[in-house]
Design a protein that fits this description.
heterodimer; A: 409 residues; alpha/beta; Rossmann fold; 50% helix; B: mainly alpha
Chain lengths: 409, 386
Amino acid sequence: MLKRLFALTSILLAFALLAAACGDDDDEETVSSPAPAAEESEEEMAEPEEEMAETEEEHSDDDHSDHDHEDEDHSDHEDEATEEMMDLPTVGLVYDIGGRGDQSFNDSAAAGIERAAAELGIEFTEASPEPDGSNREEIMQLAASEHDIVVGVGFLYESAAATVGPENPGTMFGVVDSGMLDFSADPPAPYADNIAGLVFAEHEGSFLVGAAAALKTKTGTIGFIGGVQNVGGLIERFEAGYNAGARAVNPDIEIIGDYVTQAPDMDGFNSPDRGKEIALAMYEEGADIIYHAAGGTGAGLFQAAQEQTEATGSKVWAIGVDSDQYLTADPGVREFILTSMLKRVDSSIFEMIKSVIEGTMVPGPTAYDLSVDGVGYSRSGGYVDDIVDQLEDFRAKIISGEIVVPNEP
Amino acid sequence: MNERLTRRLILAAAAPVSALCIAVALSAIVLLIAGSNPITAYLDMLEHGSKLETQVDILNRATPLYLAGVAVAIGFKMNLFNIGVEGQYLLAFIVAAHLGAQVELPQVLHIAYVLVVAMVIGGAFAGVAGVLKVTRGVNEVISTIMLNAVVISGLAAWWIVEWQAGGEISATGGRVGTEPIDESRLMPDINSWLEFFTREVGFGKELTGMLIVAVVVGVFYHVLLTRTVLGFDLRSSGANQHASHVGGVSPKRMIVIAIVLSGVVAGLVGMPELMDSGYYPSNPVSGLGFLGIAVALLGRNHPAGVAVAAVIFSFLDVSSGILQVTGAASREIVEIMKGVIIVTAVIAYEVVRRIRERDEAAAAAAAMTNPKVPSDNPPTAAEVSV
């Protein structure tokens, strides 16, 4: 019996050794593979011309020892395959949690990359992080090893890009909603030469829809629903601009403001049920127009507007955000969307990709404000057509600097 | 007798191996239905997982998962369902980050100080649920869920505003968080340990030093359970409170001790992130406490089993990125695989348990009808210990 036990143990041991041996193989493979990958991405940007020069040399310069060339041809084989694609860069788009289908922020980014694919002819892949946001850095790195341009959708990619960017100098990075400035440096400087930040003057766009709300209200009371408070003052910017716009029209207007959640609880960007409750309460308090800066939560606001109108018979309105929500929201609630504050994530991404192709990408923040149509308001539905003149007037004043919109409450 | 031994060994391995095979097969069907090629997807996952950098990612993700799994497992041993690991680790995380930034100690002392603060906070907060249970009979499932809410939408949300750092991570930088602890006082990465055996780790990946702490916690958990009086009391009280009570073990005392120990380990779950970044951000990695429940379940509350479960989950999580980037499959397949693995593992363990019971019953019956057999062939020491 002991003998058999011994036999069994020895078999197990043999297996263990085998497994260990296999493991070693794996290690050896990995020793060689990542290094060329890194070099590849570094060289990719610069090498096409060199290669051309090289081939010319090959034809004209017979004195050259063929030996060298053979060696090079061997090692460069893989590179050539990838370089044929290099005329047009490929793009890896990494979404914020949730990915496509939020009718708002991520979808706007998707529209931008699709436009770039259609008009510039680039190819792209998409990826979203785990729901807990634990692997942003990983997917950014993965995208960087496969692509020439990586765009992170959302300021939560800032620290990931700050780490991954310098590790992949051959790849260009763009992060939406972050200036990508290192504030620990004095004066603040871009994290790296290959990282651009795409920021928006949300307060300016919000100013215009705030003015629209004040011009359109019949009760003299309007509302604001923010998704999450205290995420770097991001949503507070919307509120500040909205309030300023409304008060510019009517200094005595009453504005009810509320946030769905507070950081670190990020549910406020995706809680239509809670958004609906808050909106109904605001309508009950007398608000007849409510603006939301709360991503997916906005769907609840639109439902509330529909329900309130049907229940009381007097029409109340909602104002959308980021995309033209008259076009993206559920068809049944569209007639309640007065206008939307447009944040042109799509055009910022398109412009960023274009700037890389043209070699004009600027590291650090690029601001998309009213003057470049980075933000604005939508007119779908025609509900604001009667006040367009006043809104355009405000718009011109903001662009000229006559009105300075505050970006914090 | 030898047949029985091999049968037992096969049975022990059968559950996890068959669970894994079934999970892989079922996921392949899902992949096919979704229009992806399962073979490409699996090959992508394996190829990606064989890279050293990915392995660092896997270990970094597995470390907090393992700690969360052990925290839940300690509760399970005493028949306590600690759903509050989530709240316990987030609370310990933010308090340790804040208090850690208030003092300046030499590196080793500072690390120890931060870890102790986290463990004390985690343990104390879990203790609330324990005290509620033994004094007021509040079910720990209810109380820990409530306490989670207290932390996530209450204390953490309030303190992140109170303890908000100015300067380099202020609102203008787009990042919010507590005052950062200076990097020279944080636990260093242990890349050099890994590189000693392999090669240089690329892409700026850093293997968290908390891995060592997690291993120590695992060893401690094993020794506590199997080599100490307290561990014996915990297990016996968990198996049968009343019988154990008659034997002189107060179930109330054991409940409080178990849930506090669970909270102490839970307090460490947020430490890998803190030791990496140095501050509590407005969006810390969340959900680890709930994942810990699944990890403990899959690992059968065994220190080594939980480690394997943590690595499997971590491997799947890390694979979600490569599947999307290569376009082999969407990331949801990873969630499906996790779910399928848990369900099949639970079923497989149950099937094996029944086979074992049947074997034992058969052996007992054989012994009854033919009482001479056991004395003819007494078991050797080696066999008994298996």
